[in-house]
Amino acid sequence: MKLKKFYLLMLPMILSLGLVACSDDDDDVIDPGIPPTGSIVVDDEVMVENGTITINSVSMSNPGWVVLHRDNNGSPMVPEIISVPERVESGPTQNVTIELADGEEVTDGETLWVMLHTDGGILGTYEFETVNDVDAPITDAQGNVVAESFMVSVEGEAVSSFTANDQDLVNGVVYVESITMEQDGYVVIHASNEAGDGPMVPEIISEPVYLEAGTYSNVGVPLTDEANVEAGDTLWIMLHEDTGEEGVYEFDGENGLDLPIMDGDNVVVSPITINNVTTADMSGSITVSDQALVDNTITIDNIQLDMDGWVVVHASNEAGDGPMVPEIISEPVYLEEMDNNDVVITFNEDANLAAGDTVWVMLHDDTGVEGVYEFDGMNGLDMPITDDDGVVVVPVTLQ
């Protein structure tokens, strides 16, 4: 932290500083008396936060103004200021926050000057740029303008990011270790281009996983059936924004919708290598009896899962011979890979169930956002679990 005072040759009026006010109201006139003095303490580097800059402290012998000027080859550019004038009372003032004026932007590493000005003329109105010799810069005993230069540090806009590692492809799902989305958008997977040095766009080989702004871990991105990925292949994980229709992935490389998210001039994308392509048991079983509703719930005796997933309840379809999908009429219950006993399922308040109704208890896997039920029948996420006989689903008649 250091003080830098300089002599401003381009402002001869400062040397003959006149502080007689121009107001018609005697109460608004400042007696020139002793010339006002002041001092500034500011760090060499100051962060711009939400369009404001905070100066460590200023001290004024009289009420006055604190303003910001741009740099002009080692001196402040005057009379123009780039801030909203901040009025301070006499005496020391700590942590003076100065707001940049509308339309004024500063760049990282730019030099600015903080300067003290008197408050003459109409009190409470900054007039230095419009009225000669009014609200002029304060000078010290040697006639030097009291000002300090500092470098601006502009905090970069937060950018969405992710972390993913080389991995085995198990059951066609790629897992992204962590994702931070600064905006609503998608994580998708592209195949490598012919040169092998980047993604093939606009085509994707995965289901687009929609993510609201936030931080996620262990996001499972299912590949499409047409992906044809083999061991040793390089896949490209990419983040896309969500424009156009909300929640509908529309990127086609031409329509300008759902474009890749950028970090400066670079797309947020990273390659991973598939080590092996394997399958794992995804089956499960349900043991449940017909029963009466108790406090709008039913209890499943046992659910065995070979993977983390969901148990949900679907209503009967119109034919009464199977579940109505994708809608569910219960709260989804998340279950870990294990034997789960006495699983209580709560129905939605609008389920409108009665004795004699048949409902269908079904198991679903957990892909997409971990621990968030996302099955809608179209997005390829949290799909029904199947065994050799098909979907693992059991009817229950309410008594």
Round the Cα radius of gyration to an integer and report it. Answer: 34 Å
User: Could you name the CATH class of the largest domain?
Assistant: Mainly Beta
List the quaternary state of the chains.
Answer: single chain
Instruction: Write down the domain tally.
Output: 3
Could you tell me how far the N terminus lies from the C terminus, measured between alpha carbons in angstroms? 79 Å
Low-confidence region ranges: 1-31
Order of helices and strands: HEEEEEEEEEEEEEEEEEEEEEEEEEEE
Q: What is the CATH superfamily of the largest domain?
A: Immunoglobulins
Describe this structure in words.
The protein has one helix and 27 strands. It is elongated and about 95 Å long. It is mainly beta. It starts with 11 loop residues before the first helix and ends with a strand. The chain has one helix spanning 12-15, and strands spanning 38-41, 45-48, 52-60, 64-70, 86-88, 91-99, 111-118, 147-154, 161-163, 167-170, 173-181, 185-191, 209-211, 214-222, 234-241, 262-263, 266-267, 269-278, 284-287, 297-305, 309-315, 333-335, 339-346, 358-365, 386-387, 390-391, 393-397. The strands form eight sheets. Strands 2-8-7-4-5 form a five-stranded mixed β-sheet, with no helix packed on it. The protein has three domains: 12-154, Immunoglobulins (Immunoglobulin-like, Sandwich), CATH 2.60.40.10; 161-278, Immunoglobulin-like (Sandwich); 284-397, Immunoglobulin-like, CATH 2.60.40.
